[in-house]
Amino acid sequence: MTAPSENAYPLIALAGPTASGKTALAIALAEALRPHGEAEIVSCDSVAVYRLMEIGTAKPSPAERARVPHHCLDLYWPNEPCTAGDWARHARAAIADIQSRGHLPIVAGGTGLYLRALLDGLAPAPARDEALRNRLRSRTGPHLHRILQRLDPAAARAIHANDVPKLIRSLEVTLTARTPQTAQWQTGRDALTGYNVLRLGLAPDRALLYDRINTRAAAMFDRSLLDETATLRARYGDTCRPLGSLGYAQAMQVLRGELPLATAIAAAQQGHRNYAKRQMTWLRREPDMHWLAGFGDEASIQTEALTLARLHSQLVNVA
Questions:
Q1: CATH number of the structural domain spanning residue 296
Q2: What domain count does the chain have?
Q3: One domain for residues 113 and 200
Q4: Residues of the chain under the 70 pLDDT cut
Q5: Is 110 inside a domain boundary?
Q6: Domain residues for 118?
Q7: Which of 2, 85, 184, 186 is most buried when burial is the number of CB atoms within 10 A of its CB?
Q8: What is the DSSP letter of 7?
Q9: Which residues contact 251 (CB under 8 A, 6 or more apart)?
Q10: Dihedral through CA 309, CA 285, CA 275, CA 214, nearest 10?
Q11: Which backbone phi and psi does 67 adopt, to 5 degrees?
Q12: Backbone torsions φ then ψ of 144, nearest 5 degrees
């Protein structure tokens, strides 16, 4: 780990795959550190930025948000675009606000690209090319994914073959600039400065993680994910981009009569398991990550994380 600078402000970045307990750990850290000073959580999730999308995003509950202040949730309506750069600007403003009050920012979430945009910055992206985008929209997700694999294998590994909007944007950026998108990320970045960042990564046993993913994906449907999706569909239409995200996409297939419920749940479970694998592949490439071998709601993991946070933030006499 890079040694912290004496003059920089402490910041904790907590990452990990879906269902690994990031929210539980972030709240536990914030509450444990409270005797010394307040901590606030900045959500790092590409779908939780949307209002009205609660069940399928596994957002912190109202009770959890009441325990610790949360930022960067519910920033946009579902029909409004939000890029990694958009989120990073909101997150940096929230972190600066937290710092201005002398509190500790804890960035928590599993969207690796968003975390990278926040900490390392992103290269300026080419402008949208609607003619190119319309041509790409005529292709299926798997076809677009195969093209991206040829042009930018690293980007293809980070984007699911069914995530058509992200595939289109990645191909648009690559084709317009005539340079792979991931190569563009390496130049012209506006990195976050003035902060000592402690990166904590949750890495539970894969079999146990998959069990939790299966349970949580099924529970979303039990908690009326279909009703939530139907409401969003009625308000924003079938082509609303966030409704193509995991869980919502399978719920939409049920609502359209394309899949029976049991098959949709199994597909959602498989999709989330695949996503967790991609998240870990991405996060393993992040530098200076302290890996915690367990779930964020385990007492031993919370104790280990708190010890690291206290040392990093130079906090003393914290219960």
A1: 3.40.50.300
A2: 2
A3: yes
A4: 1-6, 36, 188, 314-319
A5: yes
A6: 9-122+189-313
A7: 184
A8: T
A9: 56, 221, 225, 226, 228, 229, 264, 268
A10: -50
A11: -75, -40
A12: -60, -40
Give the per-residue pLDDT at 314.
66
Q: How far apart are CA 19 and CA 16, in angstroms?
A: 8
H/E element, 83: none
Which among 257, 178, 216 has a CA at the least distance from the CA of 55?
A: 216
Same domain, residue pair 200 and 103: yes
| Residue 68 near residue 27 (C-beta atoms within 8 A) | yes
pTM listed for this prediction: 0.83
Q: For residue 28, give the amino acid letter.
A: A
CATH at 175: 1.10.20.140
Question: Which two structure tokens, joined as six digits, stand for 261?
Answer: 């419920």
Assess whether 137 and 200 both reside in one domain: no
The residues, any chain, with a CB within 8 Å of residue 55's CB and separated by 6 or more, are 220, 223, 224, 225, 228, 247
In terms of Cα–Cα distance, which of 173, 175, 148, 153 is closest to 163?
148
Q: 231-242 burial, b for 16+ CB within 10 Å, e for fewer?
A: ebbeebeeebbb
Tell me what pLDDT residue 6 has: 57
92 within a domain of the structure (yes/no): yes
Q: Are residues 209 and 102 in the same domain?
A: yes
Q: What is the pLDDT of residue 18?
A: 97
Q: Which of 101, 84, 104 is nearest to 33 (CA)?
A: 104
- Does residue 172 share a domain with residue 51? no
Residue type, 220: M
Is 232 in contact with 243 (CB distance < 8 Å)?
yes
Residues 116 and 135 grouped into a single domain: no
Residues 281 and 224 in one domain: yes
- CA geometry: angle at 86 spanning 83 and 91, to 5°? 125
Residue 318 pLDDT: 37
